[in-house]
Each structure stands twice: as C-alpha cells, then as structure tokens.
Amino acid sequence: xxxxxxxxxxxxxxxxxxxxxxxxxxxxxxxxxxxxxxxxxxxxxxxxxxxxxxxxxxxxxxxxxxxxxxxxxxxx
Length: 76
Prior knowledge:
The chain contains one helix and three strands; from the N terminus they run E-E-H-E. It has one helix spanning 52-60; strands at 10-21, 24-36, 69-73. The radius of gyration is 14 Å and the shape is elongated.
C-alpha cells in the first residue's frame, strides 16, 4: 500500500525560543509549528521585532538548540 502523504521538506513542531536578560527570561518565540512541502514557497511576514529572524535562525541551527521538535527536513 502506498502512502499518499508526501514527506515534508521541512517540519517544525512547537518551537520555543527564550533569551536571558537582565530582567529575567524573555520568551520571544512561543509554539511555532510549520510544515513545508516540496515545491512550496513560504514567507515569514510581520512587523519589525516580531521574531521572524529569530525563528529562522533557530530552525537553521544558528541559535543554541531550542526546546522544539524538528522531526524531518533539511535546508537545501
């Protein structure tokens, strides 16, 4: 039997990112989940300071590993 569900190119589940500040912990990303299928084009849009760059840096592994599950995918 063939699986009709395609394997995602990238899948992120429940991404959280926080930073320590002088005033305590600042949670900057809360519960982001996304799935990107082959052939899809995705854009993160939002106001300045809303966390777009931090989200992408966490997914790319540029930030220390956040408490998240990235079960499949690779950056091509």
